[in-house]
Specification:
single chain, 244 residues, alpha/beta, Rossmann fold, 12 helices, 41% helix, globular
């Protein structure tokens, strides 16, 4: 068991490249990855349970007490010197967030219209809380004020040039870049949460970061209004993000 562990939270909005980024870190020999350890806590603490596919399975598969998850998993034992936690920003509900100051934190962002378009394929009529961009902005302020924000990564920039953005991210985390982070075998991973079959089909077919393609779609008026509400938060985060 390592005596010193670098603990990295990557806080993401949903329907981003967060699973691909987790798979990238899983290729490192010095890293143990954890998939959304606060998901069951979130479902047990919010009114969104009925909207999430496999909610009962998720609740049965994980500890639901978020404070226990923080102590037993986020700050608990790790088999490698680096612990990488794939996290959703909206899962931070009803918790004392001071534990973030004991960890490294990365914000993974995506343009709100793209998030909403993708999210509604699984869960219709999302709220601003579901999208997580407003919460990401609040995290940005809190972590910046406490000097615990390692980096902001925009998914479009990451997909435009994975080697460049990953190198910069590793530098900001004070860990060596590993070329193995760029490729993985197309298949599920043992670390996948039980929800993987509902959300991860595309990444399970991938062998690396897919080239960025500008999506073409239209949103109904009510969702365009939500995207406009989220946009100022995203623009502030994008200003601070790593550029390809």
């Amino acid at each position: 068991m390592p005596t010193t562990i670098k603990r990295i939270n990557t806080w993401s909005s949903p329907r981003n490249v967060s699973t691909a980024l987790m798979y990238a870190f899983a290729q490192r020999q010095d890293t143990q990855v954890f998939d959304e350890p606060l998901y069951a806590h979130y479902l047990s603490s919010s009114s969104s349970r009925v909207l999430h596919p496999g909610a009962d399975e998720i609740l049965a598969s994980q500890e639901q007490n978020g404070e226990k998850v923080v102590q037993q998993t986020l700050l608990g034992p790790c088999t490698q010197p680096i612990a990488f936690f794939k996290q959703m920003a909206h899962h931070l509900i009803g918790l004392d967030e001071s534990f973030l100051l004991e960890m490294e934190n990365v914000l993974l962002i995506r343009a709100p219209r793209a998030i909403i378009h993708s999210y509604t394929k699984v869960i219709p009529n999302p709220s601003i809380e579901d999208i997580g961009v407003k919460k990401m902005h609040a995290l940005y302020q809190f972590l910046s004020e406490n000097d615990k924000l390692a980096a902001v990564v925009d998914s479009r920039e990451l997909l435009a040039n994975p080697p460049s953005v990953l190198r910069q991210l590793c530098q900001r985390l004070s860990i060596p870049f590993d070329e193995n982070m760029l490729k993985w075998k197309p298949a599920p991973r043992p670390e996948d949460g039980i929800w993987a079959r509902y959300w991860y089909s595309r990444v399970h077919q991938s062998s690396g970061f897919e080239p960025y393609r500008e999506p073409s779609f239209e949103l109904p008026a009510r969702l365009e209004a939500l995207a406009e509400e989220c946009l100022p938060y995203y623009e502030k985060l994008f200003e601070a993000s790593i550029k390809a």
